[in-house]
Design goal:
The protein is mainly α. The protein contains 3 helices and no strands.
Length: 90
Amino acid sequence: MYTCSVVELAQEGASGLSVLRTFRLLRILKLVRFMPALKYQLFVMLRTMDSVATFCALLILFIFIFRSARYHLIIARCATLVDCLIKVNY
């Protein structure tokens, strides 16, 4: 592990070995095996993400519905206002 860092410092221009550093993140998966409390916490987080995704989908749906309703109300109001202005001017 430290040899990779030393070799990477020696090369300075090549970034091929820096990709190997991303595998350090996989160490967390090793901890999950040895720590059941961490495994339970990750399970609860994943289960909660399902609820959060459902909430976000419903929120986006409501925003779309009310935005469309507002748009149609404004268009309807402007159309009647223009009709009223045309009738008053002529």
